[in-house]
Amino acid sequence: MKIISKYKVDKGILIAVIIFAIISVVTIYSAQGLLAKDMQNLYTKQIMWYGIGFVVAYLIMFIGNEFIIKHINILYIIGVLLLGLVLVFGATINEAKCWFVLPGIGNFQPSEFMKIILIIMEAKMINKFHQDNESPSAMDEFKFLIKMVIVVAIPTLLTFLEPDTGVVLIYLLITFVMLFISGFRFRWFLIVITLVAAAVGGLLAIYFLNKDLFIKIFGTSFFLRIDRLLDWSNGSGFQLKNGMTAIASGNIFGNGFNNTPIYFPYPQTDFIFAVFASNFGLVGSVFLIGLIIYFDIKLITTAIHSNKNINKYIIAGIIGMLIYQQFQNIGMTIGIMPITGITLPFISYGGSSLLSYMIMIGIIFNISNDSLRYRN
Predict the structure, then answer these.
(1) From CA 313, how far away is CA 191, in angstroms rounded?
(2) pTM (global) more than 0.85
(3) CA nearest 359: which of 11, 108, 24, 117?
(4) Interatomic CA distance for residues 280 and 88, integer angstroms
(5) Is residue 115 classed as helix, strand or coil in its secondary structure?
(6) Which ranges of the chain have pLDDT less than 70?
(7) Where in the chain are the domains?
(8) What is the pLDDT of residue 371?
(9) What are the beta bridge partners of residue 101?
(10) Which of the residues 36, 50, 84, 102 has an alpha carbon 20 to 30 A from that of 113?
């Protein structure tokens, strides 16, 4: 039997993350020409956040997943408290209170860390339920799902009030994927899909038929969010039009490094793929998308090789979140998905989001290491 080091990592995942880091820094640097003067150093900050992120990933490996899972209830309470406090003390940026401003450091966004907290919290709950109920009845599942709804609803409501609709969708998607993977009866998913479809249909009916009534019921803020989401359906919106034009201008091989000829807002975050595609063209875009697919497959393979169900649930939540964000971000820049402000994981600028992803990487390395021990 081989002796597997406590801190051994999956080289395939590590190399992919390193390439992501290089692409991220290069693309953010290329976005400088579209940014204000006070944002010209974002690429250096991204280097710093990646450096801190790798240290954090190592610390997660040192601590171990068992310790995190054991204390996830405490982390959940802390996460909920932070989501509540940010509504009171957070800075208002672009009409949203999603961030604490930390002088000399940057913005801290609690909802980014709440995503990974929810994944682990739900994985622990689902795992315990299946351990306690070998052949659960429909009533057993129903009672458990009520508990799950409460756990998810609290951070969902607080995040919606910020407002951050994109992260709310991620919370709900994480929950849906994890419950589906864990083998709950299919009827629950049909019920949820039906209720969601009915609710969305009702909202859109009021929105299109009586906009004054919509504003009276839901408020101006929610009306503007719906209005922004629907911009993509007719290709309207300055950001979308210019982003798509920038992508098209890249042709096969791109305009070249640091050469994005068309301006569009948020090139360092929401529309970073447009910057990359404009600089490196179709060839570069295919490479990046191929790397993303390779990374996702590596995570799926890690889950398959794990002999612990809780590890499978955790990775299912992570994969569900990442694939949604990847598809949503790239899709909205090319006009096939609504613009929701979802960033591209590991590529877009952001300290909080990047650190949350690196925490996930540390957790995944721990799971991968357990799988190596199991197979050897």
Answers:
(1) 22
(2) yes
(3) 117
(4) 43
(5) helix
(6) 1-7, 221, 224-225, 228-236, 371-376
(7) 11-375
(8) 61
(9) 107
(10) 36
